[in-house]
Amino acid sequence: MTRRKHTKIQELPEDVRAAVNDLLAGGRTYGQIAEYLKGAGHEVGRSSVGRYAQDVAEAARELGVITEQLRPVLEKIGEQPNLELGSVAAQMGLMALIGFLKSQDIKDDTKRANAISAVCSAAAQLQRSQAVAEKLRLAEREKKEKAERELDALASRQGITAEVVEKIKACYAL
Prior knowledge:
It is a single chain. By secondary structure, the chain is mainly alpha-helical. It has a domain at about 1-85. The chain has helices at about 15-25, 30-40, 45-80, 85-105, 110-160, 160-170. The N and C termini lie far apart (about 65 Å).
């Protein structure tokens, strides 16, 4: 018998799940948490609480792995502020979506096809948004370069010193 992909606790309202998370973090036993839930009107057994706690622990481990994987990216962004964080985040989101799809045990062909279609649509949307972002970056760079050329020409005609021109460029990030 395979374990289902979600627990009873995941089906509970968000505020109840938040309370369960707080109780787990506070070191309460699975039995104590099950009693709390029973008192709140939810019939959830100790073993369901245990399965949920395992899922939470696994998610925490995955978050730790992702954090470690992100560390070099964030360091690189610190070194190169022009590196597009949105692009990095979008790629990571797509990777997570593909990973999620792989983890699902989808037996129904129609559901599997719909899930694959959703991933493909997300990938296409990601590609379109990255293309638009790149066009915007290019247009911004061209505007800056044009402004810099016009400033240099004006400075040359007006006899403005190179030192003043550099201060203006610094002020306007040219």
